[in-house]
């Protein structure tokens, strides 16, 4: 059963998260449709315990204690462990192999995997590295990282041709990334391995920063007929995992 006062505290946190200049008791009360008197009591309690700050204009903002708690919470996150149920669900639902990867320089590193016996043999294993420009996971980072970070990585790339479909230069890659940003997911159509089609989505944390990507990979002849279903399931899993990490 939800506790009303606790819900109000959480609503205040979420409201002030989007108000870097702070808000007065009146503004908070009106925005959340709370009684000003009860709101003031909650704000004062949060202030006394270090969860809020107040300035000379009596505007409340998030307090320093939240920074320490956030650092502790972040240090205890094991994204690979958190992602495993989502990868397993995707693998069981779609009957294809699923991956979680993080960025390391101009490469991705696979940190979790749910293997499907139906998938064609691939050398993508936990701990292995692949280029960012010709993998679905890597291109997800290039598409959804902040523009400056993405450009810095792209400027340093050497384009090696792995298959006849591998992206060949920065211009071709940029065109792909524009499309990926519009649609919300990236695609590797046999660019790193012949016959393998992969799609990937970004994973964000509570600071709205992309921290990982998850993908579904399989033989092109099996993946394309169910492409829409794969993408739908993958987007849902990405949103759910991001929410677990504090993103909303």
Structure description:
A hairpin with a 2-residue loop joins strand 3 (97-104) and strand 4 (107-114). The protein has ten helices and eight strands. Helix 6 (136-144) crosses helix 8. The chain has helices at 4-17, 25-32, 36-48, 65-75, 79-94, 136-144, 147-155, 170-183, 220-223, 227-244; strands at residues 52-54, 60-62, 97-104, 107-114, 129-131, 186-189, 196-204, 210-219. The chain is elongated. By secondary structure, it is of the alpha+beta class. 32% of the residues are buried.
In short:
Helices cover 47% and strands 19% of the residues.
Keywords:
single chain; six-stranded antiparallel beta sheet; two-stranded antiparallel ribbon
What is the percent of helical residues? 40-55%
List low-confidence stretches: none
Q: What sort of overall outline do the alpha carbons produce when their principal axes are compared? A: elongated
Give the C-alpha Rg: 22 Å
Distance between the termini: 23 Å
Mean pLDDT: 90
Topology order in helix (H) and strand (E) letters: HHHEEHHEEEHHHEEEHH
What is the overall number of helices? 10
